[in-house]
Amino acid sequence: MNESGDVEEADARRSKKIFILCIVFVILSLFVSLADPGISTFIFVSISIIPLAYVMGKATEELAAHLGPGPGGLLNATFGNATELIIAVFALSSGMIEIVKASITGSIIGNILLVLGISMLVGGTRYKEQEFESSAATTRSTMLTLAVIALAMPTLFVLFVHEEGVEGITDAMSIGISGILIAAYILGLVFSLKTHKHFYNPRGEEGEPIWSKRKGIIVLTLATIGVAILSELLISSVETSIKVTGISEIFIGVIVIAIVGNAAEHGSAVLMAWKNKMNLSVGIAISSSTQIALFVAPVLVFISHLFATPMTLAFEIFELVAIALAVVVVHMVSADGKSNWYEGVLLIMVYTIIAIGFFFHP
User: CA 117 to CA 349: how far, in whole Å?
Assistant: First the structure.
């Protein structure tokens, strides 16, 4: 009892310090944005999101201990991608459609290559081999394959059809496909949380929660709001940052904004891998990409019709190929249900190669 009490007391002190640090960073970010709404804000806000990402990871870990690995991974992806959705809506209202598409691309490939790669590397340095439920991982990668097919149709249509009214047809096609993707996502929730939840909730990773469920929900919600505020500041400084640095818009969206916008999943997945909870780690990484592809992207297609220029699912061929390659690689790595540090390194290398390609993309 005494040992348990000491752990809770130490955790409470550490949490309090981090909460104060988060508040300070948010306030300082607001002041920096007022003084210099450009590159300084872009850099400072990017750094400021890190402690908030840790808080979200901690809250998710506690809630996952109450709910189990499957719902815990879904919960983390949901709250992390809520921030992504807020960023995208703000960008759409400003007419930054290409930035939104680039950030969607970056979020998908970043989670299944960079985040999963770092997780496997970090976990592999502590454990020679880690195991996870291969059936769940395979199902998630199949869902991502569906997303690739959904993005390919309007993209190829725009690429090869040169007729009058192609934009209207692409828009109608995107709306229809978006409805199918959302249906696939909802059915996926039924599959993972009800009919086949044993795939996503294997025993041995539940852990003992220190926080109450109520505290976990409150902390996760407040942290998400903080990340959303900082993300809006980040988006507002993008145009100035592009002009100052000379970096292309697509690289900013695919690499920089995607990494910062999904910082919550990054920290959480790595933390779970370090604690040898690979089911939760893999679930966080792949589920986040799945939700971006099957839920966030199609929802944004519908939301975009509230603004002047609707968004379609016709992505650049460069973006589509990058997503397709990432999905193929993650399917190959996750099929056996085992991971090690070298597989993590390979995933990171694939991500780096793709990032170099986008860096030189005009």
Answer: 9
